[in-house]
Amino acid sequence: MQGNWFVVQTQPHCEVKAKRHLVNQGFETYLPVYRRRIRHAGRTSVVTRPLFPGYLFVLFDPEVSRWRSINGTVGVRQILSDGERPRYLDEKIVAEIKAREDESGVIDLAAATFVRGQAVRVTEGPMVNIEGLFQDIRDESRVILLVSLLGRKVRLQVPAEAIEAA
Q: Domain NusG-like N-terminal, which positions (predicted)?
């Protein structure tokens, strides 16, 4: 489809619902998601969450499409606009976000945040404040660091959310 990407603000926690209803109306949509580890009732699970909570992207040509119907779509609060005209998003932004997706269409935040050899620091757990070099991603929730311990280089596996740039 030809056109530009536009940002749609959704009702709280209605991104998926709004996307489904917009697709049913014939709009092409993009809802970037990432994996997040959550703990609830003593159990840990991995869920997908919107990268931009409360927003999704819709592709259309405002000169051709009946875009005003977007504001009346179930789950949608409004299309972001400058007065009467919807505000488009540079397609490079959407392309860059899509380029960070893995093969299942999920944004890999660890890969997007750190590059191999980057200095990082452990922020929690038994190795708190240990500094090392980012090496690799083990899975969506764990990363490998190269750290100096007892005078030698050791590979250390830690939760992805437990590191920050040093």
A: 2-101
Interior/surface letters 66-85, b for 16+ CB within 10 angstroms, e for the rest: ebeebeebebbbebeeeeee
25-42 pLDDT per residue, tens:
999 999 999 887 777 787
Q: How does pLDDT run across 126-135, given as a tens digit for each residue?
A: 888 999 999 8
User: Which backbone phi and psi does 71 adopt, to 5 degrees?
Assistant: -65, -20
**Domain locations in the chain as residue ranges:** 4-107, 118-165
Q: Per CATH, is 118-165 categorized as 2.30.30.30?
A: yes
Can you tell me the distance from the alpha carbon of 109 to that of 118, in angstroms, rounded to the nearest whole number?
Answer: 15
Residue 45 has pLDDT above 90, yes or no: no
57 secondary structure, DSSP code: E
- In words, the CATH class of domain 4-107 is alpha beta
Quick one: pLDDT at residue 114? 79
Surface-to-core class of residue 2, CB atoms within 10 Å of its CB (0-12 exposed, 13-18 middle, 19+ buried): exposed
Closest by CA position to 112, among listed 76, 143, 81 = 143
Under a CB-based contact definition with an 8 Å cutoff, are residues 55 and 9 in contact?
A: yes
